[in-house]
Amino acid sequence: MMTRKSILIVDDEEMSRELLSQMFEDEYNILMAENGEEAISVLSRHMDEIAIMLLDLVMPVLNGYQVLQVLNAKQIVDRIPVVLVTAQKDTEVELSCYALGASAVISKPYVAQAVRMQVFNIIELHKKADLLEEKADQYKQELDIQKKRLEEYNSNLLEVISNIIESRDLESGTHVKRVKGLTRIMAQSYMQLYRDSGLTRKKIDTIVTASVVHDIGKIAISDNILLKPGRLTDEEYEIMKTHTTKGCDILNMLNDVQDREMLEVSYEICRYHHERYDGRGYPDGLKGDEIPLSAQLVSIVDVYDALVSERVYKKAFDKQTAFEMIVGGKCGIFSPKLLKCLESSKNAMELFFDSQV
Q: Across the beta sheet with 82-86, what order do the strands follow?
């Protein structure tokens, strides 16, 4: 059996309270208060059971308008409809009450049947609004679940593609995972050291996920260049450099399966991760902070991992030497801020790298 809801009647005149009570006592439990202060106390104790509040405007202690101000501040008018009851006809006051969230203003003397119908209608409308809000919340939760699944699918798709490229590039396949982990370490350090950078945990998650596509364009580079064990000729090097722009062409083909932010950050990283702070990088010769932060972070991580890893064309450098080479500008020029983050993250990056090999 469903528990009956209550109506809270607030009026300093006993006769008015009794008259309103008689109108609704057959359908609802009746709660009463003689002034605004008492009304707020009753409301706090019976919040979940009150279907509507009938509130007199002119009362001692706290008047109806002041009670409405309190309810508005507490956002209670969004949960419980409030009907103002008044013997004073004041348009300005009525408008002020509506502005604070009152559902209706009823003037005394009133016709009982008209008041009943108006109150019942407001209660029903509020029920329907609650039901719609509940359905909207449920729909949003379902959309959030679907969005999360799609994001996980997209992330896995990018990582699979990137691992295929790493395998083709004769890498072990762990390069992608190392770049992700090292990028997160650097990005978190950057967020802590430069709080005005705009980096957030969510933004870092996006950058880390997108970091796997930095070399996706290598799939379009021929084997005789990509797998060449020795030094590339100038002509071959120019072809190799096109992996940045070819990667962006591939990403554009994934436009329909990537959300906008992920696609934008992926594009930044793919195109600009070989740009250098002094403008001597490629493909666009960007300089300084013209280079997106996402690409700067992945760039220095990619260089670090390349130095400390063994490749078909070189042996691995020890980590201290690699650190000194980057700081000393032997691998291109990086932002002073990035170098500070590298110094701050040095131990964490070394420990992470050792845990992956």
A: 29-33, 6-10, 50-56, 82-86, 104-107
Sequence letter at residue 264:
E
**CA pseudo-torsion sign 266, 313, 350, 192:** negative
| Contact assessment for residue 216 and residue 251, using Cβ atoms and an 8 Å cutoff | yes
* pTM of the entire predicted model: 0.60
Alpha-carbon distances of 306 from 165, 200, 202, 212, rounded to whole Å: 16, 27, 27, 15
Give pLDDT tens digits along the chain (357 positions).
457 899 999 999 999 999 999 999 999 999 999 999 999 999 989 988 999 999 999 888 888 889 988 988 888 888 899 999 888 777 887 888 888 888 988 888 888 888 899 999 999 988 888 788 888 888 888 877 777 776 676 666 666 676 666 666 655 457 888 999 999 999 999 999 999 999 999 999 999 989 988 998 988 888 888 888 788 899 999 999 999 999 999 888 877 656 788 889 999 999 999 999 999 999 999 999 999 999 999 999 999 999 998 876 678 899 999 999 999 999 999 999 999 999 999 999 999 988 876
Residue 255 exposure: Cα atoms within 13 Å on the Cβ side: 4
Tell me how far apart the alpha carbons of residues 254 and 355 are, in angstroms, rounded to a whole number: 33
Tokens of 198: 């705009």
Question: Which residue, chain included where needed, has tokens 């992330």?
Answer: 155
Alpha-carbon distances, residue 323 vs 70, 147, 189, 205, 303 (angstroms) = 61, 40, 16, 25, 10
